[in-house]
Amino acid sequence: MTEYTTTTDDALEQSPLLHDMLGDALAQLKVFHTKLRNEGELKGIIGPRDTGILWERHILNSAAIVPFIMHRIPQQRQLRVADVGSGGGFPGLIVAACIPSVDFTLIEPMERRCLWLGECVEAMHLTNVSIQRARSDEVIQDIRHGDTAPFDVVTCRAVAPMRKLIPWTIPMLTHGGTLIALKGRSVQNELDKAKDIIKRYSGLNITVQLAPVGGDLEPTHVVIALRR
Question: Is the peptide bond before 150 cis (omega within 30 degrees of 0)?
Fold first, then answer.
């Protein structure tokens, strides 16, 4: 595995919490963490205030949705997961490292971010990830035309408010498929504003759950939307 040197201290760098929460994926995610540290700000992937809190803000926060994806595996063992608006790899790269038995498609429209994702996949030695440069509406059209199979699970983080996110993601799902979206504290307000959009998708069952990030760290919010 490629070696990188770390240049800035992270508050959780030596914490046993990392192994507790990330398990066997920790070695790969350390590679990702250090690449983010060394190159992320320069390439516009993270902000300057993020460099000392990457484990908590980005990696552990993203990994919080792993149990929700794992919950789908007994029902559908050959899961196909799409991560929409993967950007810097949150949560797509993190969950792909944590669940190597599941195939992930990272969907990202920006070329420079697709190049970044490709570099990370290679550095982390991930074999269960493909990268698709496309907008969500393009993928939806491919699914409708039968050129692409729908997905069992769609994930996303900090992509758009729910009134936009629902039409961008739900049509990608199989019937019985699940949208798993990482959200902030204002998630209920987002859902309230999306009521009319939600009504357009008959049988859409939506819940909000708190997802532990680890230890005493503040939990995050996860929207679970099941397409009937």
Answer: no
Do β-strands 204-211 and 173-183 pair in parallel, antiparallel, or remain unpaired? Answer: unpaired
Dihedral (Cα; 189, 190, 195, 199), 10-degree rounding: -150
CA 59 – CA 45 distance, rounded (Å)? 13
Where would I find the beta strands (DSSP E) of the chain? 80-84, 103-107, 129-132, 151-157, 173-183, 204-211, 220-227
For residue range 46-88, list pLDDT tens digits in order. Answer: 998 898 899 999 999 999 999 999 998 866 567 899 999 999 9
Strand pairing partners for 179? 154, 225
Closest CA to 69 of 177, 172, 163: 177
Give the span between the Cα atoms of 57 and 54, in whole angstroms: 5
> What is the distance between the alpha carbons of residues 71 and 45, in angstroms, rounded to a whole number?
30
pLDDT tens digits for 100-137? 999 999 999 999 999 999 999 999 999 999 999 999 99
